[in-house]
Amino acid sequence: MADFDQELDASGLNCPLPILRAKKTLNAMDSGQVLHVVATDPGSVKDFDAFAKQTGNELMESKEDGGKFHFLIKKG
Amino acid sequence: MEEKKLAIIATKGSLDWAYPPFILASTASALGYETQIFFTFYGLQLLKKKLALEVTPLGNPGMPMPMGMDKWFPVLGLTLPGMQGMMTSMMKKKMKDKGVASVEELRDLCQEAEVKLIACQMTVDLFDMNTAEFIDGIEYAGAAAFFEFAGESDICLYI
What we know:
The complex is a heterodimer.
Chain A: E1 6-10, H1 17-27, E2 34-39, H2 44-55, E3 58-65, E4 68-74
Parallel strand pairs in A: 1-2
Antiparallel strand pairs in A: 2-4, 3-4
Chain B: E1 5-10, H1 15-30, E2 34-39, H2 69-72, H3 83-97, H4 103-112, E3 116-120, H5 121-126, E4 139-141, H6 143-150, E5 155-158
Parallel strand pairs in B: 1-2, 1-5, 2-3, 3-4
Helix pairs in contact in B: 1-4
């Protein structure tokens, strides 16, 4: 997994909290910085894809590892 | 990209039906939508400082019940005193266990994201509701005010 500037653990949280927490964290970050989100909600896979498409942030990576979902989002 | 708009009318005042308006509004805000929720009739319960929302299995054959009770437990039994409170506690516990936010938390997130919450003035008058019981930061208006925003909206939902 590539480098990231900030990490957000959204494990155990259900829809829509992972997205809302990610948005809040991104708000405090600079353009071009990368956020690493960890989630356990299977719905978050499609949600982070949709979130990135609609907000102009780039979903650099999305993968599952040991029952957890990892997302790398670059702030647009 | 021009800001999209989401207009929601929230008409229901039960624990389960409190979720759709707040989930959709908070998520829409995170996606960059300008969002308003117009609360009318029983929906006004969702604006109380102290939420006393309950869930009822009565008249709701789609509600999953513990131990498959919906298959063998007589419907009449659901009218017993305390049944609604029990169902509400069980639902709240289940939500907590599954990492589902509380209604209060989602409502706070909506206000933080500047979702505009509007209480129907007519309903307040109709039920003699005490506005001191409502949360701060809400507006009171009528149908025409709703249309001013809804008429310009990209998505309009009646919940």
